[in-house]
Amino acid sequence: MARIAGVNIPNNKRVHVALTYIHGIGPAKAMEIVEKTNLDTTRRVQDLTDAEILRIREAIDADYTVEGDLRRENAQNIKRLMDLGCYRGLRHRRGLPVRGQRTHTNARTRKGPARPIAGKKK
Q1: How far is C-alpha 55 from the geometric centre of its chain's CA atoms?
Q2: Residue 119: helix, strand or coil by DSSP?
Q3: Segment Disordered: which positions (predicted)?
Q4: pLDDT value for 121
Q5: How wide is the angle at C-alpha 51 spanned by C-alphas 57 and 65, nearest 5°?
């Protein structure tokens, strides 16, 4: 099993599909990496040599922010908004939708499961 950017990528999948298992690399970036390293798109991870895996690893390290660094950067951006006290930061702090969605109904993903309100019958 190949280990790239701290992630064990699956052996039996094609290289461009397996690269999407890394946080921060989607289908488009995966194809870009495969083309940049001059690999065949039909190759599977188990068929790669150590040198080819090293080329992929170096290409990712040089050009992309992935995994822990990306998660840390996103967390810092959200923390900055919260510290500023701007509208988006307040919405993050309260656990409500940030991008203008309605909250009268729906928004259950952000707000969590519905809680009953005491004394509200009729």
Answers
A1: 22
A2: coil
A3: 95-122
A4: 66
A5: 5
Residues 6+ apart with CB under 8 A from 68: 6
Closest to 15 (Cα-Cα) out of 44, 54, 36 = 44
Q: Are 98 and 88 in contact (CB under 8 A)?
A: yes
Q: Hunting for tokens 């729906």 — which residue is that?
A: 106
Count other Cβ atoms within 10 Å, centred on residue 83. 10
Which DSSP symbol is given to 47?
G
Share of the chain above pLDDT 70, in %: 98
Neighbours of 34 (CB within 10 A): 19
pTM above 0.85, yes or no: no
Q: Kindly list the structural domains of the chain, giving each domain's residue range(s) and its CATH number in brackets, ordered by start.
A: 2-64 (1.10.8.50), 68-111 (4.10.910.10)
Are the CB atoms for 89 and 81 separated by under 8 Å? yes
Q: How far apart, in whole angstroms, are the C-alpha atoms of residue 21 and residue 4?
A: 10
Q: How far is it, in rounded angstroms, from Cα 112 to Cα 80?
A: 24
Tokens of residue 57, six digits: 């690893």
